[in-house]
Specification:
It is built from 16 helices and 13 strands. The chain is of the alpha/beta class. It has 3 domains: 8-128, Probable tRNA modification gtpase trme, domain 1 (Gyrase A, domain 2, 2-Layer Sandwich); 146-214 and 396-444, Up-down Bundle (Four Helix Bundle (Hemerythrin (Met), subunit A)); 223-384, P-loop containing nucleotide triphosphate hydrolases (Rossmann fold), CATH 3.40.50. The strands form 2 sheets. It has a 7-stranded mixed β-sheet. α4 runs antiparallel to α5. The chain binds guanosine-5'-triphosphate and magnesium ion (MG). Guanosine-5'-triphosphate (GTP) binds next to α9. The site of magnesium ion has 6 residues, from α9.
Length: 464
């Protein structure tokens, strides 16, 4: 398995009916296989030396010579291909059945069905992209929002890989210097000055810490977050849900307790994927069904990253409002405090809420749509906690990268301490530097295990 000498084949377009379907092959035999099954439309000799050019013709069954489909075929010669191997792409008719037929023909002619992500895996193994870039490919395909798309694009453009390579080069330089000093130590270099190393490692640590710190944002960019709307019955939670989604998703009525179960929908807030949840009023209930909905609401509230807390501005504050607000504050969640029904002349004012929450509430009317922009921008600020979401800096979006950066940071911190304590402990210091280089190298895939590759590439679909 995973031998690079095989020629692999797969349907690279989504399964289902489409205008065209693409079957793609990669490996040493891909051109020979194409010659076996392809016939040019103009009956001229098929000349596979012409790279990166589309040719019109037919796929034929190599045994029966029967036409399978009318296609456009492209030969791409190594090394200027996605995998750095010889590749052939066949654009055939898009139907599920036709595409499968063309795939079967390539299999019959000697190719092997590709595993998940095997094309990208080959691109990595053949040195065309780093492991972090391969992960960028997955993230790009998976991107569900503008922000995750941009983050993936950066990953793909190699910014993280390049940054890691630079840091590793700087560490390697220090490692080489330590070697030199250890070699000379017999001649007694006691008292040599290591402040330059310490300064350089400190600078590198700052950069690593910045990358590690970016993961908080990166996680959000990649996976989005969950926002629940909470408040006592009838405050307008479902109305707000509908307003934010721009359509009537949840039932709205003037009967308190209308929403019996949680309702979830996806929403994009400034490019961030938000899972928006409308909850049932969290009050103790006699009604079994309602009680179940309320239990689920509680659970959702606890799982949420951010809460939108609604007060009904047309009523006095009740003890229910206060209890719920207290409960939410005790959970320690990030909360956006909102007073709804600003279109009705208010019974209570901002100040009162401010006393309870310590923050200035946002006035909205879910019914008329007033104040929704302010609410969204407050939500966005809460997501980024004052920090900027759209930065030019590199942002870590993957747990694997976060873990390896942390793994690289620990020996560097230890190394500095060691050297500060004992100026002659160069050998110990050198061990730490090498350990850091190893950990950081795993991000780009300098060292890897098959099981790591399996884990990463299993997220891909077949054909990618
Ligand atoms: N005037 C006014 N009425 C509103 C506004 N928002 C909601 N309402 C009304 O308030 C009532 C309750 O609205 P819902 O959206 O069902 O409230 P809810 O919080 O989901 O209620 P439950 O599901 O019962 O907990 C309905 O009659 C809405 O039309 C608003 O901004 N202004
Ligand atoms: Mg409701």
């Amino acid at each position: 398995m995973h031998k690079l000498v095989d020629t692999i084949t797969a349907i690279s377009t989504p399964i289902g009916d489409g205008g065209i379907g693409i079957v793609r092959m990669s490996g040493p035999d891909s051109i020979a296989i194409a010659e076996r099954i392809f016939e040019r439309g103009d009956r001229r000799e098929f000349n596979p030396v012409e790279s990166h050019k589309m040719v019109y013709g037919f796929i034929k069954d190599p045994d029966s010579d029967k036409v399978v489909d009318e296609v456009m075929l492209t030969v791409m010669l190594a090394p200027n291909t996605f995998t750095k191997e010889n590749m052939v792409e066949i654009n055939c008719h898009g139907g599920l059945y036709v595409t499968r037929k063309v795939l079967d023909t390539t299999l019959l002619a000697g190719a092997r069905l590709a595993e998940r992500g095997e094309f990208t895996r080959r691109a990595f193994l053949n040195g065309r992209i780093s492991l972090a870039q391969a992960e960028g490919v997955i993230d790009l395909i998976d991107a569900k929002s503008e922000a995750s798309y941009e983050a993936a694009l950066k990953e793909l453009n190699n910014s993280l890989s390049e940054k890691i390579t630079t840091i590793k080069d700087r560490l390697s330089k220090i490692a080489a210097e330590t070697e030199a000093e250890i070699d000379f130590s017999e001649d007694d270099l006691e008292g040599s000055d290591h402040s330059v190393w310490i300064k350089e490692i400190s600078d590198i640590l700052t950069e690593i810490n910045n990358l590690i710190g970016s993961y908080d944002h990166g996680k959000i960019l990649r996976d989005g977050l969950t926002v629940s709307i909470v408040g006592r019955p009838n405050t307008g939670k479902s109305s707000l849900m509908n307003r934010l989604l721009n359509y009537d998703r949840a039932i709205v009525s003037d009967i308190p307790g209308t929403t019996r179960d949680t309702i979830e929908e996806k929403l994009s807030v400034n490019g961030i994927a938000v899972q928006l949840i409308d909850t049932a009023g969290v009050q103790e209930s006699q009604n079994i069904l309602e009680a179940e909905g309320i239990r689920r609401s509680r659970e959702k509230i606890e799982q949420s990253d951010i809460l939108i807390f609604l007060f009904d501005g047309s009523y006095d504050l009740t003890s229910y409002d206060l209890d719920l607000a207290l409960m939410v504050r005790r959970l320690g969640k990030k909360v956006v405090w909102v007073i709804n029904k600003s279109d009705i002349k208010g019974k209570f004012r901002e100040n009162k809420i401010r006393e309870i929450t310590g923050e200035r509430p946002i006035m909205i009317s879910a019914k008329r749509g007033d104040g929704i922009e302010s609410l969204l921008s407050a939500l966005s600020d809460t997501i980024w906690e004052g920090g900027c979401g759209k930065s030019e800096d590199i942002i870590i979006t993957r747990r694997r990268h976060f873990d390896l950066l942390t793994k690289g940071k620990i020996p560097l911190e230890r190394g500095i301490k060691t050297l500060k304590r004992d100026n002659n402990a160069v050998e110990l210091f050198a061990v730490d530097i090498r350990e850091a280089i190893m950990a950081l190298g795993e991000i780009n895939g300098d060292q890897y295990t098959d099981s790591l590759l399996d884990k990463i590439f299993n997220d891909f679909c077949i054909g990618k």
